[in-house]
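Field: sequence (string)
Field: structure_tokens (string)

Example rows 1 and 2, in order.
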Amino acid sequence: MGRPMVQRPALAVGGIAVMAAGVVLAFGWFDETTTERTSTFAADEVDRIAVDVGGGNVAVRVEDVDEITVVERFSYRWNEPGDAHSVSDGALHLDGCAMWCRVDHEVVVPRALAVDGEIGSGTLDIEGASSADVRAGSGTLRLSDVTGDVQVDVGSGTAEFTGIGGEVVADAGSGSLVGRDLRGAVEADAGSGRVDLELAEAADVTASVAAATCASSSPTGTTASRATPAAGRASSASATTPTPRTP
């Protein structure tokens, strides 16, 4: 019988792959690089902020400044990415970046602006907006001191909203909805998550939960509520009346 053939080409290819991997590691091609860039815009160029970010963090806040500042902090491999923001039709668009890249945005504006859009697994922190309509997958939404209406929608993440002057519509899948110092009507719907609301003054509240904890209260008033189970869901509507002050 003849001697078995040795698969030399296969061994050669395997050796080349190992050598290539060694070269990649030796030159640090998989090392992460960080960089920070800052852009500014005139205040009258933007009247809305649109967010579309997968895994990065976004922070928007109002300060006593004359222009809009966008700071982007990139962590990436391979090639340095371009800007992850743009301005068109009065909107400041905040975007993510390509594969092997992550970007965090920090935006400072001189006046309250409307904010809308969504994030994936990051954190969206909004302070001082005129209104907000935002969504998150497994990420976190934090909103504070919003003068107008708020709409939030989270999957397995958490939505925290404090100091909201307008109406609130909030939805969660397996996540949590936590509201404090709420001055308008509230409609909250959670699947297997948690709903925890605290009102600043009298307002209508409708909360619906499937397999979760639902609570609403006011630090200065009394709360009347009713629960009506329907198709495996528990619904409650509550109105809070502030305690009259003593002259």
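Row 2 begins here:
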Amino acid sequence: MGQKDITEKALIQLNDVFADIVNNLVFEGKQRVAENELEGAKTHSIYHGETTFRELERDVSKFWKKKNIRIALLGIENETIPENDMPLRVIGYDGSAYRDQIRYETDSEGKRIKTVSCYPVITLVLYFGYNKHWDKAKTLHEALGDNLDDKIKRLIPEYRINLYEIAYLTDEQLKGFKSDFRFVADYFVQMQRTGHYTGSKEKIKHVREVLQLMSVLTGDGRFAKIYDDSDWKKLKGEPENMCEALDYIEQRGMARGEDKQLITIVCRKLRKGKDAEQIAEDLDEDEIRVQMICDIAEDYAPEYDEEEILKKVSALKEA
């Protein structure tokens, strides 16, 4: 498992956070799932691809149990970009979990006995995009699109994903979070509504995990870098709330701001057909730095998405 995968899942796999998300989004704030009723479930399954076996991996999944009886298998998937194949992926996750419930043994009399009681499988898809709503398929029918013949459509179940757009939650839904997930949700709600974020002074319980998830979801490595900055720790100590985390980020923001300004100018000149050498000469800028931006920008031609280019430039500099 890659480092990004581990850090992305670290916060949500904590029982208090996982239960909070389920209670607030699924049960509309009612405290139905207790953290001590959650038990880790496997996130991997194997299926046969076109030429070989492949692995299917959920983000986070847990059994919800009461008195050793499985009530449900709950899964959570984090998404930052809408995907048309999401219904297919969720069907794969859920189908694999249902397949695991088909287990039999033969008793001493040769009778076939089912050894696992059936339970429902629920997958929540948390979408963190704040610039636009989820605009890809939400159902199996939508994912199949033009490949679904009207004559057989009635025979195909309309499998719908349980999609929650975090940045578009209401104030009431936002207030419903009791765990550290409220800090993550609050960030995306504010960015969606105003384009700016004001950090809370409330104390964070799982500081490292919150900042790691914020780093992955926003593409801003400075959230996670706080823990690696020994000079900052000596001066300020570890941050206890989002307000203190922003202090660090703002002090490191000058370099990012300079990069953003340069990327804007470079992209403008790329659209005019100039190459890295010409741009560097025009701007009296270091050619290596300009070439790095041009190499990254090439993946986004001809529109040149400056925000995405900036994210990659920042990530490369912090690697």
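free_text_note (row 2): Residues 266 and 279 are 7 Å apart (CA to CA).
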